[in-house]
From TrEMBL:
Domain Acyl-CoA dehydrogenase/oxidase C-terminal: 236-382
Organism the protein comes from: Marinicella pacifica
Encoding gene, per UniProt annotation: gcdH
Cofactor(s) for this UniProt protein: FAD
Identification of the protein by name: glutaryl-CoA dehydrogenase (ETF)
Similarity-based family: Belongs to the acyl-CoA dehydrogenase family.
Pathway listed: Amino-acid metabolism; lysine degradation; Amino-acid metabolism; tryptophan metabolism
Lineage, broadest ranks: Bacteria, Pseudomonadati, Pseudomonadota, Gammaproteobacteria, Lysobacterales
Domain of life: Bacteria
């Protein structure tokens, strides 16, 4: 017998999830609906992040959710992807907060840190008592991180760090920064604490994107860092790039939520909006646009689901993450723009979600590797030749 399909999940991807994964998705979705969505427009307009929700996010197990032990939830990566999807259905800034805390800060401590570092930092980070940020990008070293100018020089048992980082999510609210710097022995990672002399942050304002997110610049002026704060188990670009791969995995899921939010809004609007004596969704061009959005969302869902399988089976390759991030963010940005247009003049206000998601996705398509960089990663895989 035929049954009505879920308009936001035409291929019933939800049925492919196991019970725990569905429970994670549904519980985070309810929290986003009940606790975050009533606040987001106000914070987007005010250029602030709702820090009062951080303890609730911690209680839900959103920080370091895939880490085993250290008071972390120990979920699989499919569940982490679904968390990102539901959070970004709320706002890219919400997903970014959790992504940075989990994939860019807790992950490198867990993967490359000493046992003492793990014991010191991971439990309070899981509880939301310590917030982290990730310092890799510089004003003149974005897509080419190897050209970073931030430098750490050995001085006895300490390191002296000088330089700066740019476009750092959570920077001005963070208690620690995972900072990558050039050394005489290659690029290395350091845990810099906010009260270390010479370490300063500056809030970046006048953003038209990710406004419900804290974005900062970091400055290091002869910051003395003990060797016990150096991540001992990695050297070279492998360290920061593996963190980025972990974050990009979540970003491959996140924009699906943003696109679903935009589609749901337009489905409601076109059903209720009457023009020339009939609802908008009676028009062929409207139905064609809605159908195309559903096609693209479904494709992205299946791509993300397969990516989750590859990640959980430890078979994932960086090229696969690049393809998914490129496809799914482009999908969501195009849908958000189309939905904004379909809402007419009302679409330019934060009374509707489309323009907020549209503006946010302009950042998401840029950070964690621009669309062009990911295209070149796939091109290199196909040709065997590096065009960077």
């Amino acid at each position: 017998m035929s049954r009505e399909l879920d308009k936001l999940d035409l291929f019933d991807v939800n049925a492919m999830l196991n019970d725990e994964q569905r429970m994670v998705k549904e519980s985070i979705g309810r929290w986003v609906d009940e606790r975050f969505l009533p606040l987001v427009a106000e914070h987007f307009e005010a250029h602030t992040f709702p820090m009062e929700l951080v303890p609730e996010m911690a209680d839900l197990g959103l920080f370091g959710s895939t880490i085993q032990g250290y008071d972390c939830a120990g979920l699989d990566y499919m569940s982490y992807g679904l968390i990102c999807q539901e959070l970004e259905r709320g706002d890219s800034g919400l997903r970014s907060f959790a992504s940075v805390q989990s994939s860019l800060c807790m992950f490198p401590i867990d993967a490359f840190g000493s046992e003492a570092q793990k014991q010191r930092w991971l439990p309070p980070m899981a509880k939301g008592e310590v917030i982290g940020c990730f310092g890799l990008t510089e004003a003149h070293a974005g897509s080419d991180p190897a050209s970073m100018k931030t430098r750490a020089k050995k001085d006895g048992d300490d390191w002296i760090i000088n330089g700066s980082k740019m476009w750092i999510t959570n920077g001005s609210v963070a208690d620690i920064a995972i900072v990558w710097a050039q050394t005489d022995d290659g690029i290395q990672g350091f845990i810099i604490e906010k009260d270390m002399p010479g370490f300063d942050t500056e809030l970046i304002t006048r953003k038209m994107s990710l406004r419900a997110s804290v974005t900062s610049a970091l400055f290091f002026d002869d910051v003395r860092v003990p060797d016990s704060n150096r991540l001992p188990k990695v050297k070279g670009l492998k360290g920061p790039l593996s963190c980025l791969s972990n974050a990009r995995f979540g970003i491959s899921f996140g924009p699906i939520g943003a696109a679903q939010a935009c589609l749901q809004e337009v489905l409601n609007y076109t059903a209720e909006r009457v023009l020339f004596d009939r609802s908008l969704d009676c028009n062929q061009i409207i139905q064609q646009k809605l159908a195309d959005m559903a096609r693209r969302i479904t494709t992205a869902q299946l791509l993300a689901y397969r990516l989750g399988q590859l990640k959980d089976s430890n078979q994932i390759q960086p090229t696969q993450i690049s393809l998914a991030k490129w496809n799914n963010v482009r999908m969501a940005l195009d849908i958000a723009r189309e939905c904004r247009d379909m809402l007419g003049g009302a679409g330019i206000t934060t009374e509707h979600v489309a323009i907020r998601h549209m503006l946010n996705l302009e950042s998401v398509i840029t950070y964690e590797g621009t669309e062009t960089i990911h295209q070149l990663v796939v091109g290199r895989e196909l040709t065997g030749k590096n065009a960077f």
